[in-house]
């Protein structure tokens, strides 16, 4: 059964970004208001406070899924996991959106500005608020304060909680560093002081690295794998973040760290995670209950349709990816049943039809017998094709056309299927919400980091026998042949990442690392708003702008170049 997080009503949860960290020590005027002083009056509150931070990737408010604590008309669009995925996938070739709102248009055509994009506002604000929550938690859980409250009996446990909070803060800062380059920086030591200043991308990289290395040290209280329940972070989560950072170190700091990336990926792999044998089960509605997530997910965002509902995350990736016709045909092709074992008429009973995939991306997969125009088939022979391909083109035209509902491929990777093949229907409670957890780090990524780092160290080709073994494990699970040694090039690895990690928030980071995000030599449909994508983008587009509200509120900040 899914672990359900308690919602922690901390005073800091309602702070605006504009106040940054300066006013965190201000008590409310109303004596009945919840404050950090009363929040920790009970020893159980320490875990509840940590749980709120842990779940902040999916929470939009302390109320219902339809209400946001940010000023958004659509609460789902304020969720961190949804918008983090969007800015890293919609800005590339991996998916297109046929909705025409500001969030979509600016990101997928690379025309975003400092003022008009709600996706950027959501990611920036959520990460900064998450950092604020972690800082406040660390301030309120010092040894002195625990002892002063008479809670010495839980001090050892709280030391572990504090380590987890530090990981969350480091992860939020990594998102900010990767997406926004040079964000404002503050720790719990700055609370009540001056407005946060920028320290530069390289210095922020070094700070995150130092935090993570300390959390991995011999005397660290950071839990090891198995010490805490999934999906709480462990030392594996910390090492996975470092491995990803080292792989992209040249982008962040100008200095490559390939050997460090390889070594850190190896460290994660040695911690006991396993490659789940069934790829589809990783993204099923019961990926927690079957053990698939616990096997392979190193750190994940948890969803539960009955207790942790959200119009973001895997609900968006599920409902947004099919239309009614595709939903009905997929139900028939897959032999989907309802909760009672009867044939289901839909694979998704709430299809939004927003996300499509252009053929240039699908072409990276090994698909056999591709055909177009047959509304009663997947559009290829799924049985003999790459098992990581969850595509459907029935009734669609091949070439993607912007804002056209009937073009390109549809994708059902995150559809609301359970591992036994059934779906919930309109007769079931909360049927519109997804319960599939979303992986922020998983073992397959560590395999691919290890292999790419090896190739970077050896002239652009994988030479390490262990790396080849990792690639073969992924290929075997996908049901596709292992390529020859000569074919194991950096470009092949980039395509393999596109296949293995599709829609998991990696593509923008990957294309920037390869130098392809802005290059005219790497076109994709509607790159830069051009139908054939044969255009170069200005280099400043590899980093998003700081949001105007924060710039206007904090005179210490300077906007990123180009904006």
Walk me through the structure:
- It is a single chain.
- With 563 residues, this protein is mainly α.
- Among the domains are: 1-193 and 539-563, Alpha Horseshoe (Serine Threonine Protein Phosphatase 5, Tetratricopeptide repeat); 306-436, no CATH class.
- It has 20 helices and eight strands.
- It has a two-stranded antiparallel sheet with strand order 1-5. A two-stranded antiparallel ribbon has the order 2-3.
- Helix 3 crosses helix 13 (313-319), helix 5 runs antiparallel to helix 7 and helix 8 (201-215) packs antiparallel against helix 9 (235-247).
- The model is unreliable at 1-33 (pLDDT under 50).
At a glance:
Among the domains are: 1-193 and 539-563, Serine Threonine Protein Phosphatase 5, Tetratricopeptide repeat (Alpha Horseshoe), CATH 1.25.40; 306-436, no CATH class. The protein is 37% helix and 4% strand. It contains 20 helices and eight strands.
Rounded to the nearest angstrom, the distance between the terminal CA atoms is 47 Å
The 3D shape can be described as globular
Strand order of the largest sheet: 1-5
Helical segment count: 20
SSE-based structural type: mainly alpha
CATH topology of one domain: Serine Threonine Protein Phosphatase 5, Tetratricopeptide repeat
Share of residues in strands: under 5%
The secondary-structure element order is: HHHEHHHHEEHHHHHEHHEHEEEHHHHH
Query: What's the pLDDT, averaged over the residues?
Result: 91
| Percent range of helical residues | 25-40%
CATH architectural group of one domain: Alpha Horseshoe
CATH domain class name of one domain: Mainly Alpha
What is the C-alpha radius of gyration, as a whole number of Å?
Answer: 23 Å
Number of beta strands: 8
Biggest sheet details? 2 strands, antiparallel
Which residues sit in consecutive blocks of at least 5 with pLDDT less than 50? 1-33
